[in-house]
Automatic annotation (TrEMBL):
Residues 234-438 form the Histidine kinase domain. It catalyses: ATP + protein L-histidine = ADP + protein N-phospho-L-histidine. Signal peptide: none annotated. The chain crosses the membrane at residues 12-32, 150-174. GO terms for cellular component: plasma membrane. It comes from Paenibacillus albilobatus. CDD domains: HAMP (cd06225), HATPase (cd00075), HisKA (cd00082). One of its GO terms (molecular function) is phosphorelay sensor kinase activity. This is histidine kinase. It is an enzyme of class 2 (transferase). Keywords: ATP-binding, Kinase, Membrane, Nucleotide-binding, Phosphoprotein, Transferase, Transmembrane, Transmembrane helix, Two-component regulatory system. It is found in: Membrane. The keyword Coiled coil does not apply.
Length: 439
């Protein structure tokens, strides 16, 4: 039982309740005793004044026990008395059998108790004329009876109160731990392939927020699982196409349907395409699974953009596309290889879709830089602008559908931002913003 949160809370509640009851009873008992003792002293003082008035109005024999009334909680009791001479001999008493006995009573104002016939007595005293002393007293048993009666009633009230608190506590423990139990059962049955098993919805409490967090996490896991399935399906489809071409032309060469030279050229082209696709897939999966450290290198970004221009120039010339470069002098410590690949992918895509012009622009921003590539091609519709960064998303002139996915993964790893929007050239604009983290 102690291994569960419910058991621990329940056990803690019992310990706290028992400790609280015992502490309350102890302190309450002390309080009642103290109050009764104070009340008894006041009552004895009042009866002492009454006894002296009776004696001064007559003599010692006029005083009797019935004259000394004590009232506690609407119940009537009687105090007793005796009068001592200078030799501590009792010359008058409420109990006539005590007369003639000797008894020593301290006259110190700090003493309030003495023992008589084996019983503890509370007393008060007063000096009389001719060296006499009067002592008014009452048995402590009376106070104990009253204290016990009050304590029993109070204890019953305390037990009832704590019983109610205990029941409320049990309800609270059950109410608190039940969602955790439901969450445990749901998580134990959860599998990303089973869409029907969901995490129960939580309330506004911390446990409810935890359940909502698990629910969101399960949704992300299901989404990731679905993405992996789609990724595997897309990889299989994309790899199957060049493999079928290679197999088809190999069979055609074998059957002498096509010439060996033509068949080999197609097989070579498809093989190169297959290798490029596998390399990009390996690069993408490595970025997603291996958290390798990207080395920062002090780089002249203006020179990097010029290098991109030089590498893309032959392909652009073949399509009759002019590539314009607009840069600013800027040096910065960056992961050079990854940034260079982003700029190359942007520019290659722009050249594929451009009609006449591509514009590569590098600008400085606060703490970093922005790379922006525009083209005058057909552009990207608004509902497709986020999809272009998905794996295997290819447009009409696309090749593998992995290049922009690598750019998006790079941006995520670097904490950079990436996007696609309309260009003032009439086509698409892809941009990448990178800011260095401040120490």
């Amino acid at each position: 039982m102690m291994q569960t949160i419910r058991g621990r809370i329940f056990t803690s509640l019992i310990i706290v309740m028992v400790f609280s009851v015992l502490t309350t009873v102890f302190l309450f008992n002390r309080l009642i005793d103290g109050m009764l003792m104070d009340q008894a002293r006041n009552q004895l003082r009042l009866q002492m004044t009454k006894a002296i008035d009776i004696i001064e109005g007559g003599d010692v024999g006029d005083l009797s026990t019935e004259d000394l009334e004590l009232r506690f909680r609407d119940r009537m009791f009687y105090a007793d008395f005796f009068v001592l001479n200078p030799s501590d001999q009792i010359i008058a008493a409420g109990d006539g059998g005590m007369e003639g006995q000797f008894i020593h009573i301290s006259m110190s104002p700090r003493d309030h108790f003495f023992t008589l016939h084996g019983q503890k007595m509370m007393y008060t005293h007063q000096k009389l004329e001719k060296g006499l002393r009067i002592v008014v007293y009452t048995p402590m048993d009376i106070l104990k009876q009253i204290s016990g009666r009050v304590l029993r009633v109070s204890l019953l009230a305390i037990c009832i109160s704590f019983g109610v608190i205990f029941i409320v506590g049990l309800w609270f423990v059950w109410k608190t731990t039940r969602p955790l139990q439901q969450l445990k059962e749901a998580v134990s049955k959860y599998h990303p392939s089973y869409r029907g098993l969901g995490i129960p919805q939580g309330d506004t409490s911390e446990i409810g927020q935890l359940m909502d967090t698990f629910s969101n996490m399960s949704g992300r896991i299901q989404w990731h699982h679905q993405q992996q399935i789609e990724f595997l399906q897309n990889v299989s489809h994309e790899l199957r196409t060049p493999l079928m071409s290679i197999q088809g032309y190999a069979s055609a060469v074998k059957d002498q349907v096509v010439s060996v030279e033509h068949g080999l050229s197609v097989v070579t082209a498809e093989s190169e395409r297959l290798i490029r696709m596998v390399d990009r897939l390996l690069q993408l999966t490595r970025m997603e699974t291996v958290q390798e450290e990207w080395k920062l290198t002090e780089v002249d970004l203006q020179e990097m953009m010029e290098q991109v221009h030089q590498l893309i120039a032959p392909a652009a010339a073949d399509r009759g596309v002019a590539v314009l470069v607009k840069t600013v002098p800027l040096e910065m410590a960056i992961p050079a290889e990854q940034i260079f690949q982003v700029a190359m992918n942007f520019t290659q895509n722009a050249v594929r879709y451009a009609s006449n012009e591509v514009r590569l622009e590098l600008t400085a921003i606060a703490g970093g830089f922005r790379i922006r590539v525009d083209d005058d091609g057909p552009g990207v519709s608004e509902h497709e602008r986020m999809s272009v960064f998905d794996r295997f998303y290819t447009g009409k002139a696309g090749v593998t559908g992995i290049g922009l996915a690598i750019c998006k993964q790079t941006a995520d790893r670097l904490g950079a931002t990436i996007g696609c929007e309309g260009s003032d050239l009439g086509g698409a604009r892809f941009w990448f913003e990178y800011r260095q983290e401040r120490p």
